[in-house]
Amino acid sequence: MRVITGTARGRRLREPEGTAIRPTADSVKETIFNTIQFDIEGRRALDLFAGTGQLGIEALSRGAASCVFVDESTEAVRLVRANLAACGLSGTVVQTESLGYLAGCGRFDLIFLDPPYDTGLLDKALQNVIKFDRLSVGGILVCESRRDKAMPDVPAPYCKTRERGYGRIKLTLYEREAE
What we know:
This protein is of the alpha/beta class. The chain contains five helices and seven strands, in the order αβαβαβαβαβββ.
C-alpha cells in the first residue's frame, strides 16, 4: 500500500495485521482519486472509519488543506499516526465512535465513508451526514461498499452523482448543492 501521487508520492503505508481493518485496494483508491482529482486542493477532508488513514493521507498528499481522521480502534489510530509521520504529513486524529463524531463536528468539503462491510454503518453514517448537514456546498461524499449493495437516493440539497462498480467494490459519490 503506497501513496499514489502528490507530495508523499511513493511512500509506503503501514498495513494492519490480521483482518480487523480492511484497507481500500490501491486500484480502487486510484479510481477514487482519478474521479475527484480536481476537487481536492485546498479542501477540508474527513476520513471517517479511517483504518490506516490512506484515503485522507492521499487527499493531503494531493493538496487538501486539512484532514480529520476518525476511528474508534486503538490499532487504527496508531496506524494513522504512524502513516502520517512516515509521509511527513499532519492531520487531526480522533479516537471515537464515528457515528457520534458526526453529531458534533463542523462541515467538510470532502468526506470518505468506508466502514466495515455488512455492518449497517455505511447507511447510518450517510444518514448522519445528511441529518447533521456535514457536507459543505459543492462538497463531495465518497462511499465504498460491496458491489451488490443498493445505495439510496438522498433528499435535496444532497444528490447522488455517480455510482460505479469496480470488481466486487462499488463507489458511490454524493454532492451537496446550493439550496
